[in-house]
Amino acid sequence: MRQFFIPEEDPILAEVLGAYSFPDTLIGAVRYGQGHINDTFCVLCQPQEGDCVRFILQGLSSAAFPHPGELMENFIGITSFLREKVSANGGDPLRETLSLVKTRDGRDFYTDSKGQVWRLMPFIENTDCFQSATPELFEASARAFGRFQYMLQDYPAETLNETIVNFHNTEDRYAKFLAALEADKMDRAKDVPEEVRFVLERKADCSVALQALREGKLPLRVTHNDTKLNNILIDRETGEGICVIDLDTTMPGLSMNDFGDSIRFGANHSKEDETDLSKVNFDISLYEVFTRGFLEGAQGSLTPAELEYLPWGARLMTLECGIRFLTDYLDGDRYFHIHYPRQNLDRTRTQFKLVKDMEAQFEQMAAVVAKYAK
Length: 374
Fold this sequence. Notes:
Elements: E1 4-5, H1 11-18, E2 25-31, E3 39-46, E4 53-59, H2 68-88, H3 93-96, E5 110-111, E6 117-122, E7 127-128, H4 135-151, H5 170-183, H6 193-200, H7 208-214, E8 221-223, E9 232-235, E10 241-244, E11 251-253, H8 255-266, H9 284-298, H10 304-330, H11 343-360, H12 362-372
Antiparallel strand pairs: 1-2, 2-3, 3-4, 4-6, 5-6, 7-9, 8-11, 9-10
């Protein structure tokens, strides 16, 4: 059962809620969603007549985001830009992008007495957030993420702050892996020779995207960097992705990374820590479903080179994730939460199995992009 918070019984929550003027009688708040980073609450207000009015209140994690002011600067800039675009296209900016409720003194966010930054947003009603996908939902999320790229194609990406430094810098992830391997703090390297060899053999792959960026082949874009299905609000009436949420990792990046992270997450049917690798398979049909939706949403805004590199995005995001799991395993499981001792190793192996599958089907992946890149 979710714990219901009455503001008077929680001093910090009372302080934060007191910083805002609510239009109706404030009832309380309840923890909301399945995120593991920020403190998220659904705030309930009851008008004299009609249904309850809801808001989303989030306290930003200082551990994950040590510079919350820079994060909020990105958030405000991006959502303001999107509202103008949505309005110009005849859409509903209150449903199609996130927005902020200002504090009593007109600020976009509130810093509490302990230094945590909070933001309040209107609740976007008549939408759902899903944790697992049908092909239809997967394609709907693809259109939404592709449209996110399309809508933000003119936003000056270089002006955004890097909220997590080197987040999708695969060369840096490789270097951190080598450092963890050399240190071998837990004496685990001897038990994972195949996994270590797998990474070492793909050193050159870790530079593919960044080298293309350095050579000017790929443009810097505004990228979401966490393009999972559960970061899309799906409209209950249409079944379409109506709003991209969780913008905290939105930074300068490459379109191929947003595409690839979705494929890594959604184009297979296994658990992330599946121990039976025969059940871990890259599904080319789901890859096609997502590619079709993503390119439809992007509406021709990607360059020929970006289209060419989309299959690489899937390979590299999956490889990078596997490297991160293996690095953490060697380092003593300090970053990713685990529920049993070898979980990060099991996670590593599932990612590497998907990489192998993608390598074997890489020509087919390129053909799928070419089919829908019109």
